[in-house]
Amino acid sequence: MAPKEIDSSVFSAGVHKNRACENCHANATDTNMNTYSFSTDSAKTCTYCHTGSGNFGAPLIAEHNQVGQQVITPLAACNTCHDNNGMYLTNAGTNGTTSAITHYLKDVTNRSTTPYQHLGPINTSNCIDCHNGAYTNNTSWGTPANITTSSKRQHTETTTAQCDLCHKDSNILTLASVDFHNASVQPVTGGSCTGCHSSVATSLGNHSKLNGTTAVDDGDCQTCHYAPFSMVTGAANSSNTHYCQDCHTTAGSGPVKPQPVNPTNPLIKDGLAHGKTDCKWCHVAGDQPAYKYHLNGPRGTATGTNCVTCHVSANLPDSPFHAPGESHSSQIDGQGGCADCHGSADNHLVGSANSQSPPAVSGLSAPTSVISGTPAEIQATVSDVTYLLQIAAAQYQITNVSGIVIDWTPMTPKDGAFNYASEVVNATLDTSGLKGTYTINVKGMASGPKTDPSKPYYPLNGQWSSVSSTQLIVNELKGYINGTVRNNSVNISGAIVITNTGVTAISDANGFYSLNLVNGTYQLTTSKEPEFYTNSSVSVTVTAPATIIRDIILNRKPTGTISGKVAVK
Hints:
By secondary structure, the chain is an alpha+beta fold. Among the domains are: about 360-475, Immunoglobulin-like; about 480-555, Immunoglobulin-like. Helices cover about 10% and strands about 20% of the residues. It has twelve helices and 21 strands. The strands form five sheets. Strands 4, 6, 7, 10, 11 and 12 form a six-stranded mixed beta sheet that branches. Strands 13, 14, 17, 20 and 21 form a five-stranded mixed beta sheet that branches. Strands 3-5-9-8 form a four-stranded antiparallel beta sheet, with no helix packed on it. The chain has helices at about 10, 20-25, 45-50, 80, 125-130, 160-165, 195, 220-225, 245, 280-285, 305-310, 340; strands spanning about 110, 115-120, 360-365, 370, 375-385, 390-400, 405-410, 410-415, 420-430, 435-445, 465, 470-475, 480-485, 490, 495-500, 505, 510-520, 520-525, 535-540, 545-550, 550-555. The chain is flat and about 155 Å long.
């Protein structure tokens, strides 16, 4: 049988070009080729050099191989993928183009770039290509699992960045920066809801019993999360998740409702009247990840709170509840307490009391005029005229004859917080770029009642005052051209100095003149008739607020004598 030949020119261009034959064929020598047999001297496999501690300084392959550290691919050996077109160099060897692929292996990953540059048919830094794309379940590429039908979780992820959440370690920023053999590629630990989301596996409060036991298990999770969705913020919605109102109202469609399902059950919340009719407004206020609908159960952020917590100790701008602040009572029940006007001190039954006069703005002050670039301090007092509610916001607006120059912009309370029924508010107006006459408008907002009843109180939906206004003139920054008009050493008084823009000065008894001008280059014309010739040769550039000194010379006209007689005819 004729010996099999290696295409040496292609081998020398491949990834193994620096290896000697005996590195893989241990017993092969230059003199025993006639008797050498593969059956008694098996060639070293890829894993001999590229896994474990490795050999010959070969790059180590940690994951996505048949002996992977954590991500093991039992259906894909190295040659499963590297025997495909595009993974090896075309050759003329008689040992076959793919049966001894290690001779012509192509380096398909450029590790000197970030992210890696891929020179083969598959981008192995893109999880989706194999697991939810063109190569999914392709036997030629090791039958990559289809994540959309995964038995662990039906994934809806479509980008590698979404895979980062569960499948990378802390040594890299993103899976897209490494290839799939990298040790930072990780399997999910646990393989179940509670296995991955251990932070919420300790207690769901009363929701721990959704699946019939007091322990938190996957059945509790799947009772609410009834359809798959991506593991990214915002992916849970009403198409895949049951929310509070689905189970806690008589009309809701949720699978596990508090019994009996009627309005007498305190856990059935029909006709909710408090604030925004949405449970999460109180129970997961601020959208805090530590609470959500999970840790410590359905009470969430609302645990331990009452009227005073939200409406006296805090105000509309204050997180997490952003509730209207009141200043008329710190008593909840009893004579003069919340229930007197609001019908009940029960958080779910309390009613609104909206017969409230709007707040008022007084004492608006600002400079009458400033030089452009000089800060203008604006101050006003915003008060709830009935002293029942705290002031929650104040804003200013700048307009001129052309319209709005600066739209409504927040002002800050002088004492540092909106927590009283009367607040002194401030703002610093940057006048850079402004020039001319402007109107400063100021308005304030009490924390209630709502301006738009269809929206929550926050943000900025309390009751606004009428607008209070004052005028501000912003003058353009100017510089000076100063100097003396003279003829030789004699100063000339009464000379007229005029710019090409029409600004005029007259020299005083000492010949001194001064022009106050905005930035620009000016041509000066100086004259005093009839004694002197006009001088139009002086050009000066003004850069405000600098003063430029420029003396001006006028040449005297020649004089003669006119003589004669005056006669009467």
